[in-house]
Amino acid sequence: MFLRLLLESFLRQRRRKLLAGIAILLGATAVTAMLGLATTIGDRIHQELAVYGANIIVYPKADTLDVKVGDQSLKPATGNAYLHESDLAKLRSIFWANNITGVSPELRAQMGLQTKAVPDGVGVDAIGLWFDHSLSAGGGPALITGAPMLHPSWKLEGAWPQEENIVSSDNREELHSDVVVGASVARRLNLHVGDTLLTIISVPHSDDSFKPPNVGLRVSGIVSTGDITDAQILLPISVVQQIANHPDAVSRIEISARTKPEDAFARRDPDTLSPQQHEIWYCRPYANSIAYQIAEAIPGAHAEQVRQVEQSEGTILERISGLMWLISAAALLAAAVAVSAAMATAVLERRAEIGLMRSLGASKGRIASLFYAEAGLLAIGGGFCGYIAGSLLAALLTAKIFGEPTGITLHTALTHAFNPVLLPVVLALALLVAIAGSTASIRGALRMDPSAVLRADA
What we know:
It is a single chain. The protein is of the alpha+beta class. The chain has helices spanning 2-12, 14-49, 147-150, 183-189, 237-243, 275-282, 287-297, 307-349, 351-359, 364-402, 410-417, 422-446, 450-457; strands at 56-60, 67-69, 72-74, 83-84, 100-114, 122-129, 133-135, 143-145, 155-158, 167-168, 174-182, 196-197, 199-202, 214-224, 232-236, 249-250, 252-257, 301-305. The chain has 13 helices and 18 strands.
């Protein structure tokens, strides 16, 4: 009998039920879209801001020490202390290793560049970099990274150097490698992709017994960056290490990591925290805490966040998140009001039915369960349809705001549009809205005097 009454209520009040279901659907659609954006917007904004460079920089600790002479604070000359390239694999073993999306070590050297047009040589700043490097530790997944990944705004004509294209002679006096030339260097020396540079000779070395190898270079690309890199040449870091006689040396490391927006707790000095607070701080993906773990993992390293990039990311996320929660709350409130209005009208139309059930001995709980069952079915149906519509809307908004990678198929886009974790959340919210919107009307129906209602309708 209960199921029959439930079915009859949907058949006889199709319009009322449809309006309530649409209200729940629209609310669930808005909530799903906002939750879908919230789960991906952090990574998207991180990718967009990545064009401005890394958000964590690592230096040798010795280069950051101040020396006090009387009342004067002096800094040691940089370039005398190095980190070890072999230690970078330890980045894959820290607590927030999976949040590290890019690593780019550097080794700088001042060199003399000889070409056919400039046989006497010209001084050029050279930077040793990773270009397409696989960083792994133990049996864990490898991170394919390098300078091009950390600087997607760099515009390259040609190709990046490949490690396998480095060729050494048996006597170690000659070395052949590809090189990418900065745009201003290319203009000054009239270089083009495919040109061959006669040699690179390092400036006089502090070790007189060391004889730098002659390096034959092929220009594999010309890069335009819009900054000081345009006046430099970019080589594989192993080439610069051999030329500068600093094997395994790294002078600076740029790291890009997904982080939690900075708050007052993030700016606390970890050394002043209690053990419990320190554990909480350590286990949150703040830029400071990730930098702290990096300094722990790499011997002799000092890591710090780039505040301009990190604060911009945190500010944008905070403002967008607040706007999304406001839209979600407004959508749920509007859905609850619409459900309440539809349910109040339904109760008013069914006064005689309610009075008859009461007079025949139906308990208040039985009548309330009937109306709540109706609201629950509307919530499940509207919530599920809203989940589908909201997921597609979130995918569409993401594509419109941030763009999608070229070559992505429709099947792949639809697969990534639906997040199954959101479905139970959306259904629970839809049930909450339906129950909250129905409760006032149901309580009013249960307070009616069945005899008065039946006499009024007689």
